[in-house]
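Priority: low. Protein: Molybdopterin-dependent oxidoreductase. Input follows.
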Amino acid sequence: MTSKGRKKTSRRSFLQGVAISTAAVTGVELLKKDVADAADATSEGQCKEISSQSTEFDLTEKSAALQPDKIVNSACQFCNSLCRLKVHVKDGRIVDVLGEPDDPVQAGGFCIKGPMMTELVYNRFRLKYPMKRVAGEKGSTDSQFEQISWDEALSIIAGKFLALRDLGEARAIANKTSGRLPRGTGSLVGRYFNLLGSPNDTDVGPVCNDAGGNALAWTFGLGNFTNGYGIDGATKKEDLGSAKFLLFLGTNQAETHPVTFTYLLRSRAKTKAKLIVIDPRLTPTGAQADEWIAPKPHTDLALVLAMLYHIVTHNLYDAAFVHSWVLGFDELKQHLKSNNYTPEWAAQITDVPVSKIKFLAETYAQTKPAAIFCNAGISHQLNAFDTYRCLAFLAAITGNIGISGGGCNFMHNTWPGGLNLPPIEGKIPKKDIALPVGPDYFAEAIISGQPYRLKALITQGNPLLACSNTAKVQQAYRHLEFYVYTGLFMEESAYYADIILPVTSGFEMETVYMRRDDRAIRWQQQVVPPIGESKPDWHIWIELAHATAKLDKRNPPQYWQDNFPSSWKDYRHLWTTFVANTPGMAGMTQQRLSERSEPLRWPCPTVAHPGVSTLYLDHPSWYQAAESLDVKNKGKRFLTPSGKVEIYTSQLQKQLTKAGHSALPIFYTHPEVTGRNPTIEYLAELVKNPVNPHALTHNVKLGKLSTGEVHKQYPLMGTTGRSSVVHFHSVTHWTYTGKQKNGVRLVQIHPKTAQTAGIENGDEIIVESPRGSIKGTALLWQGIREDTIFVPNWFGSQQKMAQDLGTPYYEAANVLIDQKYYDNLSGQQAFKCFACRIKKA
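Result:
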């Protein structure tokens, strides 16, 4: 972190001298060895500690040239820590970026990515005006585009959409959003698609963390991160900072959410809370832990089931809480026993010692309050919904839900069901059922036409890097009739587009953009004017509606214009509309948000309400907020039909069995996990998705044993994830800092595994899976399982900043991933395990 934007922390490496096989090692042990060996760190992959620059004197103080004309309160958009950035502007140019010292969570700091927001503004590769394809094969870098006006671009899009609708094919039009969107843009997209009559307006959730939100909603009533960072405004007490046990599963927050993670570490220094990190590889998060536990990839569900078994059978659960607030405990107990989900069973599946599983269960159950944190490491498994449900059970039976310092803090599940707009004026067409949830199914619908063909698509992200089996997505986009790409740069997906629309970066608009994981948001002011002719995303959809009004021969212009008033282009007006129409947000006015140094949490029903830190807290502030969401919630603590935590009910069972699941999950995993394990079989039949009932999904059978045949040729398990704290998805690869500091794809391999393959540290290597191959550079790393390699994702073949810094161009890591395997309930793709092999290039 950078304290007040100035102090730079040194970078330490994890040293190569600790023997790690498969079970567990403490981060403390590694750090002790780090200190002992730093003086003569000479073996491969090691480096000496680098001293920080002196911060004793600020030699820029009172520099006339650097004194800002104004300081603008904006926000970083590179992760869900939601740091305020105090942007210094001189003569209309950004000259400095500092942190917010008056936010107790941020504490004046931000990570390396904060100043990189400026590098999106002043970037020679920015898209600056609309373009249309005039020549070249789709996907080819020889594609030729010419500049056109916004009016022409939007007219072409509206004309194509209306032509499909008038042919009775509105369902053949789709949209895919991404996390880069200003808040509320998705509501405008949904409104446009309702007026058009298409069901296929999808959000970023299946790429991100929908499974966590789905599981929380089905168990507790709301699909949101349950607890808050900092002081609870209602109780005036620390919330997550008061935790005595921090259980991290599949989340590397030191690199993905560094500022909120640092807050937890500061709090832990006071509370002496135990931190356990579960991850197949040692990360900077694991280095801070009391203990790092390394299970096989994609086997977390077995670990959690065994923890539940041990807690239930040894009477370590909170009997009083279970009696008062939990439905289905007896059924859960019988389920665990009848399936023999013992620690001994789980040890065989996960490769974690029996003693370690029992210790983990006992420590979690007996140390209160205990908080669970999860992210993509769980979400990107094909059993994600069921794993998250079991984690919710874990919190419930130990009484760690609805209390400060506890909860199920599943990252990125932060917003209400939607930011609502007024009811649509006029009659809207009936919509068909949506394609299966998950962006990767679009490729199948384009290529095969099943269950119907997708013909037109508009995206706000870069699906060629985000979707699994990149080669299949490329094939699909080449055959797509009409594709609109919106973005900051000519990313990989843009070369397949018919129309390209330039958007603004965060500093170029006034809005609410990102949100902190604990449902907290802050207002951000516009810092500089838009670059070129770029527009904020919500402007594009309002103007597209007005362009559609001019061409629609079925409806009068008012059908579109009245439902998309031009006044909404002023985000303050749009936000006021959202607040007035979204239950539980009446207290989140623009004025209140602007005046605060720290963000404000949802739900917040009045301007006098402090906002909710702990969901389901037995406190008047929670009951007031719950009732504001729905009058039917009056007096309810949990917002399920019963008002209690629902582990098992006959209704849950009835709904989930329709898609091959159960209210009480059984263990299954990816067929490319080594060994023979219960896995999943996708049936040809498409059924209504019980978790996302607007869409279809594959019916499945669970429990069939995998054959293990794939590992005869591909003996390793690969997993993907963020390359380092420098990067946030693909966009940071378009910055000088991102490419300078981490522009080489470093594939982490255990030294013993590398030795077997004849690979040395720094060698160029090829990683192959049954789907394809990619190149990278070997990084020998003691802190990873011997049977696992880690391939950083979000590298792409068109990231032009590489030419300035001399770093390689790479194909997407998702070339290696099998598109077929996904969570059929949430739509989450299985990025966290694929069979692979490595060789020297």
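The chain has a mean pLDDT of 92. The chain has 27 helices and 31 strands.
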